[in-house]
């Protein structure tokens, strides 16, 4: 009885160890059922030297040895990451078998599209949490940003300039003759010069020395006329 009880205890203790999984592709760091409950990588803390490329079209294959469980797929960025907060997939399994798991790398930052990384698979079942890791090099296509169109070389249309409005003609001098008076302009004779003696002279008024000479001649003539009268 004691031997049978001891055997049953041993089988019960070994049962959780029999409920496990392993990563087939990409290759796991290592697999040991006895330490697979140790986070983050099931007891294997050193990264693998070989790192296959891992991209959107890569295969992620596991061998599942339990009858039911949920697998969470996580990604850590870096050569030997400890942060596996980026979840890239999940699978709910109901029987033992080999499964190709689907995952989505669209949430990986573009700056890490070619980085070293580690895939972590975490199994949750009635046996608790189990872990396993696979080291990879990410190979995610980088979407190029569309090139903005270059500015056109054609000149930008200029707003129409205000058309020059015709300058109004300046009032030009009338070409028609100035109205003539109906009466002929009276031509007044130029006023005759008056001699100092009181009588008018017949010629134009002289100025300066000429007027003095003319005055002398007029005086002589006046004297002669007076002598004849006497």
UniProtKB/TrEMBL annotation:
- Which stretches are tagged as biased composition: Low complexity? 172-193
The answer on whether this UniProt entry bears the keyword 4Fe-4S reads no
Q: How does it sit in the membrane?
A: Lipid-anchor
Q: Where is this region: Disordered?
A: 141-209
Q: Where is the composition biased (Pro residues)?
A: 146-171
* Chief location: membrane
Q: Organism's domain of life? A: Eukaryota
Any idea what this protein is called?
Copper acquisition factor BIM1-like domain-containing protein
- To which species is this protein native? Polyrhizophydium stewartii
Source species taxonomy: Eukaryota, Fungi, Fungi incertae sedis, Chytridiomycota, Chytridiomycota incertae sedis
């Amino acid at each position: 009885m004691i031997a049978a009880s001891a055997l049953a205890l041993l089988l019960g203790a070994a049962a959780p160890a029999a409920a496990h999984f392993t990563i087939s592709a990409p290759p796991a760091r290592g697999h040991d059922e006895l330490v697979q409950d140790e986070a983050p990588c099931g007891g294997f803390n050193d990264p693998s030297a070989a790192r296959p490329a891992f991209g959107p079209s890569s295969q992620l294959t596991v061998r599942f040895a339990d009858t039911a469980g949920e697998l969470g797929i996580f990604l850590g960025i870096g050569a030997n990451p400890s942060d596996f907060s980026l979840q890239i997939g999940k699978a709910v399994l109901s029987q033992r078998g080999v499964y190709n798991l689907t995952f989505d790398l669209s949430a990986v930052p573009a700056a890490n599209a070619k980085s070293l990384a580690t895939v972590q698979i975490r199994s949750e079942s009635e046996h608790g949490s189990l872990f396993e890791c696979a080291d990879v090099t990410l190979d995610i296509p980088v979407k190029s940003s569309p090139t903005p169109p270059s500015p056109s070389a054609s000149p930008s249309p200029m707003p129409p300039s205000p058309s020059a409005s015709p300058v109004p003609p300046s009032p030009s001098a009338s070409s028609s003759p100035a109205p003539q008076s109906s009466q002929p302009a009276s031509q007044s004779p130029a006023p005759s010069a008056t001699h100092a003696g009181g009588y008018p002279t017949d010629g134009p008024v002289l100025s300066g020395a000429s007027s003095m000479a003319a005055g002398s001649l007029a005086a002589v003539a006046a004297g002669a006329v007076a002598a004849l009268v006497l």
